Amino acid sequence: MAALTAIEKKTFRLHLIYQVIDGLILGALALNEFVFLKSLHGSDYQMGFLFQFSMAVMTFSIFFNELLRRTVNKVRLLRLTALATRLPLLILFFFPDNIFDLQNNVIYHYIFLGIFFVYYLASPLVLPAINLMLKKNYKHDNFSKFYSLISSISRIFLFITTFLFGMLLDEDPSIFRIVYPILGVLGVLSIVAFSFIPYEENREEVIIRKGFWGAIKESFVNMIFLLKQNKPYRDFEIGFMLYGFSFMITVSVIKIFFEEILSLNYSSISMYLNLQV
User: Fold this and answer.
1) How far apart are CA 180 and CA 235, in angstroms?
2) Among 40, 69, 233, 258, which is most exposed with the fewest C-beta within 10 angstroms?
3) 27, 158 contact by CB (below 8 A)
4) What predicted TM-score, i.e. pTM, was given to this entire model?
């Protein structure tokens, strides 16, 4: 491993903090669809939307990528995104603690869906910004080592959190009202902590040749041209898209099967999710 610079050491520490907290959050959210089905008694149709939010928002990547490219102060953008997408989780604290009231009022279902749609909107902006900042501060020789090590540590926290949260939900199905707002605050803190990684954009590197919508149109044109001209790439994308359709349908059906047919408790589901990963 190449000798570490002071910036790399600081980046590693902040990257580790971010990933550990992110592991805690993802561990709890692994049970999110089951919380919606079992605790809120949301419909299967609504659960399908909830499950797809995390992936559907990535269709906005082309817009967010252009926004990120044009933004010089990426640190400020990260912090604003954290506040806008994580703090709405605090609304769940004001949900009724009576599980019967939650199950019989559809307005809570739609509020829950809206909160998590906003939450997942951060992904196409935060993830590329984080990768950009890491590549800027890690040497090429160290990047893969640090990234894999920290990702492994994050995964361990994910496993533990999924299991513990499942046990808590078995004891009190409405405990998500407390846990999710805490995760919202932690989500803000994790991104803010990460934003302290040294990063300075060179304004001369940000070349703006067209307006925002003109650049978006150009990206779509280039994408279509690539699909038309590059057959191997087109075949790969078609196959991957079909796989994605089957995966999303299958996973949704499995979750509904666990709840409506097998009537598994949260602990059993969390054990399955950990073994699955």
Assistant:
1) 41
2) 233
3) yes
4) 0.86
